[in-house]
Amino acid sequence: MSIIIKNPEEIENIREAGRRLGEVVAKVSARVAPGVTTNELDDYAEALIAEMGDAPAFKNYQPEGASYPFPCTLCVSVNDQIVHGIATDYILQEGDIISIDCGLTHNGVFADHAVTVPVGKVSEKTQKLLNDTKESLRLAIDQAQPGNTTGDIGNAVEKFVAGRYGIVKGLAGHGVGRFIHEDPFIPNYGKAGTGAVLKPGMVIAIEPMLTLGADDFVVESDDWTLSTSDGALSAHFEHTIIITEDGPEIVTG
To answer: Which is it for the CA torsion 120, 47, 203, 189, positive or negative?
Structure first.
């Protein structure tokens, strides 16, 4: 798949998809508390999206190589789970962290958004991981200027992290819009000035994934959930961005 430049109608629909998705993720995040199950969060997200007249992008999505379709509206990844966590009857505990990753399709286009939130009170070290992962996303988005490259985005994350955290290898940001996953592939590390050149009309999802330990992952027995190889905590933040003549426009913020 080559990089897709979106037309003006698609851009407007992506803006609205992003606005709606931002609302869903904010409302679900506000429900996070000790005693809540990840299934309850998933059911709530699906109901919110249905009320909007839209559809979840992840549910029943089966990319090449997946043994079965993804069964949930949300990817809910707890503690050492990095991405693609499946909702269950797991009861959130005080001190957990949970990544809430959601995709939505509206009028034929897609948006993608993720946040990691604490469950009750977390340690200072854990909160700093969340704060720094969110800050790395902000710095990455700053580099999403027309004429810059995907390498500039990844390099911004890598320079900020400076060895203080693991940057998950093999998982990355991506194009989004006509499909939930499109070119280009956008790693959270790399050399400035390399990779695909960013052009107005491109729509991308930037999503740093940082850990308190290793930079690699294992696939859990459910064939979807990806967890840190050493059991270290992981945080994940993501926004859908339109590349405009004037710079990056966050549509899921």
So the answer is: positive
